[in-house]
């Protein structure tokens, strides 16, 4: 399968997983090559992430434009860090044999999840007072998608699946705070 076909197949599989269809996994290349190729999702999303990082959110005076090199650095640290964190969590749960599958699935599912986040961003500009509501709904949906993907790929129980997703979410949240510029002095 060529790279273009693999990307299309993987995005389709991610879409199926997002719809809670465990057969979405069969559209992903769950091999060592597929593991490394799944990071293409990060490259495909980078331009959109850079654009989104420069968008001032409603209610932010002057926006919170971030410096480009910092955004790029933390963007890739987030992708690699998530894989490293998942490796540690897989080791704790004795699921290292399924590590590649969970990373591959999380990487490709990030594409439709990013679409959800971009949609919430657009809606927040159309209805600024509802922005927090839009983001809470989208973050909840992303959490549930990641929970389903985690339970499906790792074959773990509800508590372990919830714990993994919560741990990764909190780590990404902390990393996000680290990239925020200092607010201007009052």
List the helices and strands and how they pair.
Elements: H1 3-18, H2 32-37, H3 40-53, H4 68-92, H5 99-126, H6 131-154, H7 158-179
Quick structural gist:
With 186 residues, the protein is mainly alpha-helical. The protein is 73% helix and 0% strand. It has helices at 3-18, 32-37, 40-53, 68-92, 99-126, 131-154, 158-179.
Count helical runs.
7
Counted up, domains total 1
- The percentage helix is over 70%
Percent range for β-strand residues: under 5%
Low-confidence sequence ranges = none
3D structure, described in words:
By secondary structure, the chain is mostly helical. 73% of the residues lie in helices and 0% in strands. It starts with a helix and ends in a 7-residue tail after the last helix.
Features:
single chain, 186 residues, mainly alpha
């Amino acid at each position: 399968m060529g790279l273009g076909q693999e990307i299309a197949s993987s995005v389709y599989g991610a879409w199926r997983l997002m719809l809670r269809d465990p057969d979405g996994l069969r559209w992903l290349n769950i091999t060592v090559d597929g593991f490394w190729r799944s990071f293409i999702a990060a490259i495909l999303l980078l331009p959109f992430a850079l654009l989104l990082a420069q968008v001032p959110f409603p209610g932010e005076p002057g926006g919170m434009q971030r410096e480009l090199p910092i955004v790029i650095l933390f963007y890739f640290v987030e992708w690699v860090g998530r894989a490293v964190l998942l490796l540690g969590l897989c080791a704790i749960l004795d699921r290292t044999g399924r590590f590649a599958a969970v990373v591959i699935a999380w990487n490709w599912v990030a594409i439709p999840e990013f679409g959800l986040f971009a949609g919430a961003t657009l809606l927040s500009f159309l209805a600024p007072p509802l922005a927090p509501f839009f983001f809470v709904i989208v973050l909840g949906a992303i959490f549930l998608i990641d929970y389903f993907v985690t339970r499906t790929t790792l074959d773990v129980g509800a508590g372990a699946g919830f714990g993994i997703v919560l741990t990764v979410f909190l780590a990404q949240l902390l990393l996000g705070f680290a990239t925020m510029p200092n607010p201007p002095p009052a």
